[in-house]
Amino acid sequence: MPWNRITKKEVGNLFAEMSKRLLSIGIASIRLDYAGCGDSKACQTKLSFCGEVNDAKKVYQYLYTQDFIDCNNIGILGFSQGARVMAELLKEVHSIKFAISWSGACHDGIGVFKGWFDEYYQEALENGYAKIPMFWRENLLFSKNLQNKTACVSSLKMIFFS
């Protein structure tokens, strides 16, 4: 189950290529776009860390019900923010046999995102989200409803200054 935050097609279609290679050696894989990302029809401004974790749980639960899946050999790969989601999922789902963090963003976000907070917090308060320009991909729309290490929170201020 490979995941990252923005789209299953990110990073030069790396996940599609990896899935093809896994299939060639008899390993099934599933990729997803979180609600609000990539091919998802959900609004990106509603994207939250807790929503990402819930999406991951739903994919795992789906896999677990499939007859062609060996439920004793399910692994997970998280890329970037997906590694953070993976770590949170592993706290609850103990039957996953192995986990791979690929360029993992496993942190609480305070130091890494402080610059974004300083620049975009007011915009998030005024609009309910902040539009953060990315120069190599589509812009990020971050909801003011982000997540700290342990629980969903209702404002960026709680993440960075609590």
TrEMBL record:
GO terms for molecular function: hydrolase activity. InterPro entries: AB_hydrolase_Est10, AB_hydrolase_fold, BAAT_C. Keywords: Hydrolase. Gene3D superfamilies: alpha/beta hydrolase. Residues 58-107 form the BAAT/Acyl-CoA thioester hydrolase C-terminal domain. This is Serine hydrolase family protein.
